[in-house]
Amino acid sequence: MTQAHGQPVLVLVELLILSAAVAAYLMAASRLRRRGDAWPRWRDGACTAGSVATAWATVGELPWEPFTAHMVRHLVLGMLAPLLLVLAHPLTLVLRSLAPGRARRGLLSLARSRPVGLLVFPPLAGLLNMGGMWLIYRTPLLAVTEHHPLPHSLVHAHVLAAGLLFTFAVCSLDPVRRRWGLDVRGGTLLAVGAAHSVLARTLYATPPPGTRFAAVDLHQGAQMMYYGGDLAEGALAVVLGIGWYTATGRAWARRLRREPRTLVG
């Protein structure tokens, strides 16, 4: 996630996986539409954009100084790309694409299992996400990744996976064991946002242990983390608000359908 981009073989494998995932998604979405099912095309765009952003964060070259460029990658890989990928509703697409049978029942059972339910419990997902960030930036781990490609690639994978898990848990767009309420998901988002801001402030004052970044570069990177994180968390808050508004509207519609109509006058 710094200037080096990890082992070439691992990077190639990641790009191949991303390409295969996008192709599979687009083919599944096209198959749904051909059989007459509705599937918004903007979700195809979200999946494609999220995958392109992930690939760019892996191999793209940036004009900024090392720490600022690293932080841009951090924001894209851990926040922007996960949001785009989660907005594509990948689990819902897979479930709708599978024919009724053992495979579909098995996947649905897994999605609604206790271990998965625990993993996507928003506070736990937030702890795994922010805990990893604090570990990367407030221990010598980042310094190790600057000189060793394998730890670099593993940290890279962790940032993406933790970002996906947290975003998936907070947005709660796909069917899982339990859809937590707005209070739990919104409270978790606020707590993680606060921890992210505090971490950015500490980086403005003190570089990660074992690293030597120029003061200007360090300050610019910390500011990028602070303000970029606010923007990404604001986007997540918008998704939460839209989800709440839509769910509330549907609940009212169902309630009105159940209640007998009364004549006035």
Please tell me about this protein's structure:
By secondary structure, the protein is an all-alpha fold. The protein has one domain (8-103, 115-247). The chain contains 11 helices and no strands. The chain has helices at residues 8-34, 41-59, 66-87, 90-97, 102-111, 114-119, 122-138, 141-147, 149-171, 182-205, 215-258. Helix 1 (8-34) crosses helix 4 (90-97). The mean pLDDT is 88.
Record keyword descriptors for this entry.
single chain; 265 residues; mainly alpha; 11 helices; globular
Structure summary:
The protein is built from eleven helices and no strands. The chain is mainly alpha-helical and 265 residues long.
Secondary-structure map:
Blueprint: H1 8-34, H2 41-59, H3 66-87, H4 90-97, H5 102-111, H6 114-119, H7 122-138, H8 141-147, H9 149-171, H10 182-205, H11 215-258
Helix pairs in contact: 1-2, 1-4, 2-3, 3-9, 3-11, 7-9, 7-10, 8-9, 10-11
Average pLDDT taken over every residue: 88
Question: Number of DSSP helices?
Answer: 11
- Shape designation: globular
Low-confidence stretches: none
Largest sheet: none
